[in-house]
Amino acid sequence: MRIQVTGETQPDQISVTGGRKSPVIEVNNGAVFAVNGRSGNVTLQGVTDWTNVTLPPHSAAGNGIADDTSAIQAAIDACPPGGVVYLPAGVYKTTATLDLKNGVSLRGAHANLMTGPGMTGTEYPCYIQPAAPFTGTSVIQIIGDPDGTHPNISGEQRITDLMVDGSQLGGSGIDGIYARGNVQNVVLDNVTIRQMPNNGIVTASRGDGTFPYSWRLHHVMVDNCHANGLLLTGCTDVTLDDVQVIGCWGQGFVLQNCTNGQLLSCRAEWNGSHGYRITGTWGDWAGSGGMQITGCQTDRNGQHGMLIDATGNTPILVTGLQTRRDGRNGGSGGGAYAGLAVIGATVPVSIDGVTCYPGVDDGGSSTNSPQYGLRVSGSATVSVDNAYLHADTAGYLDDGTNTLVYAGSIITAAGATTATARTLTSGGSTDATFTPADHGLIAWTHDPATLRSASNATVSGTVYLCKVKVVGRPRQVTNIIIGIEAVGAGLIAGQCLVGIYSSAGTRLAVSADQATNWTTTGQKTIPLTAPTTLAVGSYYVAILAVGTTPPQFAMGAGGSTTVSPGLTAATARFLTGPTAQTSLPATIALASQTVTSGARWAALS
């Protein structure tokens, strides 16, 4: 095999014995000084579809000092569809937006992914570097809009092996890559966008509901932009493959109505707000499908690792999501943030194989986070299965405000990364018996259909304890529900209360005073002074009324029939507790209380 120069009017070729010659190298009016060991100045055929911006007639300097805007734009304008505008290693200073036209590939020599230890950010100078003063709102734009300058349909642009470095722009609101209107089939491959004063990559409407679509992003890094990493609106049929957004000041990925989309092996890390956000109204045309999110990761995002709050009816499938240390919340943790949160979503969300593992910053500072592994609230349809959820407060939180939730096989853990106590949840019961969930409740003492109209008398100052069980997964409790069968009179303000105790007798939550509320009959939904999250297990609802004539509370069984067979006072379902009380005590020695057949009814929501 040899490289053969066949005259000055033919491209270089490789000769293979028994084969044919194929063009492999073309040099744009360059000089070859040695061929097959022979020296001499041999000029090869010029290339017509590969434009080096540093050569005449464009002659970009690539030194980071001279303004190369006009040279690069002239090369783009002169490049035929299917051609390549090539930027050799160098720093290409620009001071205005570059307009990338139909079918042109913009190719660099190397895309640094990010700066590493000991690097200053100037190593491997292979990038476009916009500098102030700058004209325009993005470094590169792609426009499909009949605005007098651009075509109605634009597409087939390629950006490859290129970095855009916005570190010299200061505080101006400039995006990295901006696309508007009917921009189709754009590919970004091995591209880095860093330190933009605004967003990294943006897609937007041209005003008539037409958005960019059918984009492919492969091996893309968006690093430390001052707003969001990716802000994609209406970008249907999009594929994001190995896209990483790190250190952006806002959200990492913001995807609005990106139907028929795919996220594959993407990562959101150390972003100021949510790592990923699936939001907006989805599915506004006949071809709209959902989105598939597969094998993605989060780590150390400021709020939720992934938030799904989209509306519409197109299903969102999340498979193999790994979340880690999200909900950083400025280092303080908490904030009700989760590795994965589905909040206010009307789109059906199907989750399989999600994991969450908490932690602190790499250096050991900050508070353990996230607070929850998976949080589901106010959503229409959520299904979760095959999950391992370890978080600071609770692995899984369903606050009871959702319409339909299926919780399959879920293992949860709570506390620091070293916590080993785990709970298995298995959902999908086919039992036809009515349950609290059928009534939109978290737990109850017993089915309210068994309640009778008359109740046992209530003794003023006596605490009555009614056992409830939280099953399946940890739940956030906001209210206690009881019933008043006969009104109270002469009730003392500040001494009529309900609360929640642990199975060990420790008070966990309490309501405000109910003296006025209990002077009428009916169901009473009583807010706690603060919501409390209850792990799977048994708890007691406590009821205290103090006054001349305490109310009678709704109850089930009574008389001499026991309702706690086989149980001791420490574990009984119903207890008559401490007497002569004016408030709910901080602790109650359950084993010292009296088992009662007075099955007062209570529920949690």
Describe this structure as you would to a colleague.
The protein is mainly beta and 605 residues long. It folds into three domains: 2-43, no CATH class; 152-425, Pectate Lyase C-like; 443-604, Jelly Rolls. It has one helix and 54 strands. The strands form nine sheets. It has a 27-stranded parallel sheet that branches. Strands 47-46-49-43-52-53 form a six-stranded antiparallel sheet, with no helix packed on it. A five-stranded mixed sheet has the order 31-34-37-40-41, with no helix packed on it. The longest helix has 10 residues, at 69-78. It starts with a strand and ends with a strand. Residues 1-45 have low confidence and may be disordered. Keywords: Lyase. Residues 1-16 have a biased composition (Polar residues). One of its GO terms (molecular function) is lyase activity. Residues 59-262 form the Rhamnogalacturonase A/B/Epimerase-like pectate lyase domain. Residues 1-20 are annotated as: Disordered.
Q: Count all strands and give the number.
A: 54
Mean pLDDT: 89
Going by CATH, the architecture of the largest domain would be 3 Solenoid
Q: Which fold does the CATH topology of the largest domain refer to?
A: Pectate Lyase C-like
Distance, first to last CA: 79 Å
Low-confidence stretches: 1-45
Largest β sheet strand count, sense and barrel closure: 27 strands, parallel
The CATH superfamily title of the largest domain = Single-stranded right-handed beta-helix, Pectin lyase-like
Query: What would you call the structural class?
Result: mainly beta
Please tell me what the overall shape is. Answer: elongated
Supply the number of helical segments: 1
Roughly what fraction of the amino acids lie in strands? Answer: 35-45%
Nearest-angstrom radius of gyration? 33 Å
Number of domains: 3
What level of helicity do the residues show?
under 10%
Oligomeric status: single chain
Determine and state the CATH class of the largest domain. Answer: Mainly Beta
InterPro entries: PbH1, Pectin_lyas_fold, Pectin_lyase_fold/virulence, RHGA/B-epi-like_pectate_lyase
Organism: Streptomyces indicus
Region (Disordered): 1-20
GO molecular function, one term: lyase activity
